[in-house]
Please model this.
Amino acid sequence: MERGRNYLKLNESERQSFSSSVSKPCVFISHKKEDADFARHLSDYVMERGINVYFDENDPILAIEHKSPDEVVNAIKKGLEKSTHMIIVLSKITLESNWVPWEVGFASAKDKEYRLLRLNDVFENIPEFYKVAKILNDYDDLNKYLASMKTTQTDSRISNDEILRSKQLLKRLDELKKVVPQLIK
Model:
């Protein structure tokens, strides 16, 4: 299996050709900066399973010390727009974040599929807006979720083949429609 890639580690030419879709999922890793070590581990874990990620640690805009809120918003939007899914690292620290809830709202508005990966320090008092997402409680849940992306990826390839065949049949039908009136006369 080919290892997934981090969008932000691609060169400019690779970034321009990068596309995410149901057939090529890309996971946005949402986290509070203080959880960056775990988020980095999660990012590697997802890529080891052949799924691309968008992990902000390598974003040149977000690396700037004195960035404006507009720059942060635009960087996050770009990351989410390049992604098909989002995994939110949910820790006690995350519960204090201003940006993670914003990311959840933006992802929700863009109909991105997202899950909460609940860390061991969060047992209760999960805000209501997080509860609309399914919760991944452990690596077993995470593995099932990642496997479902791969299954969707495979199903999508089959569907794309079927769509191509259907287009070919429709084209042939259009050709026949042009010939049939001539045969009837």
